[in-house]
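Page header: ASSEMBLY MODEL / two components / 938 residues total.
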Amino acid sequence: MIFTQFYLESLGHASYFVGAEATGEALVLDVRRDVDVYVAEARRHGMRLRYAVDTHQHNDYVTGICELPTRADVQLLASAHAELGYPVRALADGDRVEMGEVVFEVLHTPGHTPEHISLLVTDRSRGDAPALLLAGGALLVGDVGRPDLLGGPAQTQALAEALCQTLQQKILSLPDFVEVYPTHVSGSLCGGHIGRRLSTTIGYERRMNRLLAHLSAQEAFVGQCLNLEHLPAVPPYWRRMRALNQQGPPRLGTLAEPPALQMEAFDRWRRDGAVVLDCRAPEAFAAHIPGALNVGLGASFAPWAGTVLPADAPVLLVLEHAGELWEVCWELLRIGYELPKGWLAGGMLAWRTAAKALDVLPQWIVWELAQELQRPGPLVVLDVRQPQEWAAGHIPGALHITGAELPARMDEVPQGRPVATICGSGYRSSVAASLLQQRGYRDVVNVLGGMEAWRRAGLETVSEGDPQA
Amino acid sequence: MIFTQFYLESLGHASYFVGAEATGEALVLDVRRDVDVYVAEARRHGMRLRYAVDTHQHNDYVTGICELPTRADVQLLASAHAELGYPVRALADGDRVEMGEVVFEVLHTPGHTPEHISLLVTDRSRGDAPALLLAGGALLVGDVGRPDLLGGPAQTQALAEALCQTLQQKILSLPDFVEVYPTHVSGSLCGGHIGRRLSTTIGYERRMNRLLAHLSAQEAFVGQCLNLEHLPAVPPYWRRMRALNQQGPPRLGTLAEPPALQMEAFDRWRRDGAVVLDCRAPEAFAAHIPGALNVGLGASFAPWAGTVLPADAPVLLVLEHAGELWEVCWELLRIGYELPKGWLAGGMLAWRTAAKALDVLPQWIVWELAQELQRPGPLVVLDVRQPQEWAAGHIPGALHITGAELPARMDEVPQGRPVATICGSGYRSSVAASLLQQRGYRDVVNVLGGMEAWRRAGLETVSEGDPQA
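Prediction written out in full:
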């Protein structure tokens, strides 16, 4: 049995290729949209892609399961409980898919979503004990898949109860030695405490996973699952993903290269309403094209692009290097955006030497912020971190709106007052600051170093329990 | 904790990078000679290489542990039982190496070699249970590290007994859920039945590893370990590796590019005694430069190059494509050879259009061999497969000398008679045929498809138990 994991840090997403040496067939699980990685893996082993399956209809990215048939004659599989707009072979609890020496046993594992399945994999060339569990969004490394993504409190409560039973009856009933390979891994927002490693075992999680400690008392477990303080805020683009994945995303087919746009063509698009997405680091965004949004290319690019970009806006890119073009394009395509209309040829060098207008985003270090806060004044400190981070300590008097919620809650940020945005390090706060500027806030600064620097500088924080908080 | 596995198929070798996020330090285990892969991994995570350790002084490749200090300020670690020609920090059973959230507990695990250690790794960011075992050549996927590589029967017996105790007391005493990452993996000749996956767990091996079933009776286990019928023959280059690794291999430093040699320069080297190593497939080797040895670049290149190439011979390469040059060079450097003197510019196209002499190696399909064997005659069938393969069925009357033993046992192949070489598929037999031709055997043919084709064609085989065998 051949087994390969593919990891995308910015989505915290792992997908899997399982190949049977006896027949040369392979299965892909939780397919991402850039499917050529699987085609290449099959080629490398001289195998043929035969099956593709999603453990559930994901909330956080666009599935590539409908793209794969453009490359290979694959049969699509899905949970019998899934409601899909494309034909699949339905898998019910207890079903088996056999492929040479490999057997996949289907476990219906609702909780993260109602239709969720996990696949228990046995390599018969070694023997009849299961070797590993492809756990999707059920059991994660140090965490469980959050049950609150699909609806209101009642549905979340029901899913949390289902998750509790799934874990007790379907997953923790497996032997300790079974390896666990989840789909939602480090970097994913589908859990609040996902660990850094990309695999684990049933027995290790049984002992070390704090959420599972509550399992024996369903009420306590459900309470723990519903404790939204511990869960990251949901980026706006997630609302579109599940329906798109159920219906079957459009096929990408052949992708045209987004063109290098000379200054005037770029500026024409911009004046016609295209959104400028500036992929440089916060420090560089200190001077930027008026109206540009800043999402630095890096480990968190996808969720932040999906936070600030409207669903259908034409996008123009500002890149640090031309070589980043397709990395950015794939990040966008994977979360359901169209290809950008183009990118600025020559980058910021071309823009600034053309004497075009530049907006500035002043960058403060934490000492400058502390000094400003000493004197009475109208300065608003806007903290855009996750609830868990905020709860662990924040600047007295700061306003808390998570970055993910900012687009919808911007009217809570007072108009006409200076605003200093802050996060953990200065990356997310730069995203937020750029969004404020784009929406007309004139007096915005970004705090470089963020709360990490604030704390290391020994400056005052308060936390939830404090009377001052 | 960051954990990365590096896999080299042709050596069946896995090495490991373990990084501590708390301190940005990393450890590399069972270092290969092309150490830049570890430097790049450290760079990717913004970490610093701090420690390097070999679980044992390997028999099958040259360690890169002495090369790493040319790239980074690493501390070298080794078993307290190792006898080394370079300074290290000695690790005794029970010692701990701490690196931020990561703890390595040293287990002295003799058997494969006397000094052998394994590292039990705990990620304290998750809790105090061990997460994984870096098992070196102790417990393998579906196998154990062979104990017969260091000396005569008495030493092998003692090591097999030690291995039995290591497995019982040090390894199988670990909990089922601990993941196991061995150094000798699929493709390695350090075991006879190594499975295809690149990791496993204690509990899975406890249940599925056939050798461990004999553990409770030490005598039976030792007998099983000493059953050389089940173990692959040892390539000649292995005899040099352990001493070199103990003494500390010379540093490679900056490597000059082996030059593209024009025909005349190439031929001058050749006439002066350089060995021509032809890296093309067996089919292409049907016509080749006189005296060339054939080791096709691919999954088994390293052990076969290490079988036919003398330790210090100057080497000339014939490549299928120029782009393969450094892949071949690294395969050779990793097993202790010097860089080749150069490679034939223009490849075989240049040679044949220059009207230079060509030798042929006739290629038979199995039906041609069967037909030849029908009629009485002096044809010798030389089967060069592993003992295990031979035992499972061979051509009646064939002569069996494993490919690895052929250089030392060539005088057992009758002179003056036609020889047909056969293996499993035609790859190893082409290596053997080229060696026979180089040593003066004139009437040699290679059987394409080998015993696999022979069996599929329904032709007669006998096996050990048969009276005819």
